[in-house]
Amino acid sequence: MQTVNSMNYEHFLDVFGNVVEKCPLVAAAVWAGRPFSSVSALEKNIGDFIDSLPRSGKEGMLRCIPDLVGRGTLSPESQRERSQAGLTSLTAGQRSQLSELNASYKSRFNFPFVICVRMSDKETIIQQLGSRIRNSPEQELQTGIQEVKKICHLRLLDISS
Amino acid sequence: MQTVNSMNYEHFLDVFGNVVEKCPLVAAAVWAGRPFSSVSALEKNIGDFIDSLPRSGKEGMLRCIPDLVGRGTLSPESQRERSQAGLTSLTAGQRSQLSELNASYKSRFNFPFVICVRMSDKETIIQQLGSRIRNSPEQELQTGIQEVKKICHLRLLDISS
Which residue range or ranges hold the Oxo-4-hydroxy-4-carboxy-5-ureidoimidazoline decarboxylase domain (chains A, B) (predicted)? Predict the structure, then answer.
C-alpha cells in the first residue's frame, strides 16, 4: 500500500478513477482519506462515500453505467468483464430477451439493470433480470448499489494484484 | 424546455453530462427532477445537488478538473474555454508563473485552482491565483465550488442557446 499512499491525486485518479464506472468523483473524493492500511481499507472508504450520497446521487451512479447490451460506450474494464461473462457471445434469442427485459426494467426503475457480471454468467444474468424486475424501486436501488460495490471490489483486486 | 423534459436519461446525459467537468453523476442525479420549468430551474437542481455532497465529494469534484496549464486531458468544452481566455497563448514567463503558483496551490489545498476562465482573462487569472492561495482551505473549497457553478451556468447557456 505504500505505493498507493504516496500517489498524488492525479496519479491516484489515473489508477483508481474508474473503479466505479464513469464516476472518477468517487476516487477523487476518497483520496483524501490516505494513508490506507490495506486495499480493504480503501474499499471501505469507497463504500462509505457511496453510502453518504443522497438517493439522487446513488440513482445517478447507476445511470452512468452503460446497458448490458446495446447502447452506451464501454470502458475497457467494462468491455473485458462483459466478454468474460459471455455477454459478447449471446444467441440472437438471448440478445433480444435481454434487450426487452432491460427496456422494461429501465422504464420501471428509471435506471439500468446493474449486476456484477464477473460473478455470474449469461444465463444467470437473464434469470436475475427477470426476477429482480419484480422488486420494489427501493430494493432495486439498494441491490444495484450493492452490485456497484462488487464490481468495484473486483476492479480493486485487479489493480492491486 | 419541452425537449429537455422529454429526454430519457441517456439522451440527457449525452447533452448535459459534462456541465460539471468529468462528473456525469451530477446530470445523472438531477435528471430525476424533471420536469424543469426553465434552464434556471435545472441549474438550481444542479446547485442543490452539489451542495448536498459531503465535503469529500466537493473536494473530489474539484480534483476531477484538469490543471489550468500542463497536465490532464481536457474535454472539448474545457479546451474551448481556456483558449478563449488566452490560456493557450501564454508567454513563457506567464506559463511558468502559472505553473509554479498552481503547484503551490495544490500542495497547500490538495485540489487544483479552479476559476471560471470565461469570466476572466489570463492576467486576472494569474492575479487571482496569487491572491486566493492565501485563503483558508475552507474558503477555497467554497470559492472553488462557486467557480464550478459559474462554469456550469455558462455551459448550460451554451447548450440551451
Answer: 5-156
> How many contacts does A have with B, using Cβ atoms within 8 A?
90
Contacts B30 to A, Cβ<8 Å: 56, 60
Alpha-carbon gap, residue A52 to A125, rounded angstroms: 28
The tens digit of pLDDT for each residue in B108-145 reads 999 999 999 988 888 999 999 999 999 999 999 999 99
Chain A residues inside the 8 Å CB shell of B13 = 63-64
Instruction: State the Cα–Cα distance between residues B21 and A33, nearest whole angstrom.
Output: 23
Query: What's B131's domain CATH number?
Result: 1.10.3330.10
Q: Which residues in chain B have their CB less than 8 angstroms from residue A56's CB?
A: 29-30, 32-33, 49, 52
CB under 8 Å to B113, separation ≥6 — which residues?
B68, B101, B102, B105, B106, B129, B132, B133, B144
Rounded Cα distance between B90 and A5, Å, is: 35
pLDDT of B35-74, one tens digit each? 999 999 999 999 999 999 999 999 999 999 999 887 667 8
What ipTM did this prediction achieve? 0.93
pLDDT digits (tens, 9 = 90+) for A31-52: 999 999 999 999 999 999 999 9
How many independent structural domains does chain B possess?
1
**B64 → closest Cβ in A25, A54, A110:** A25
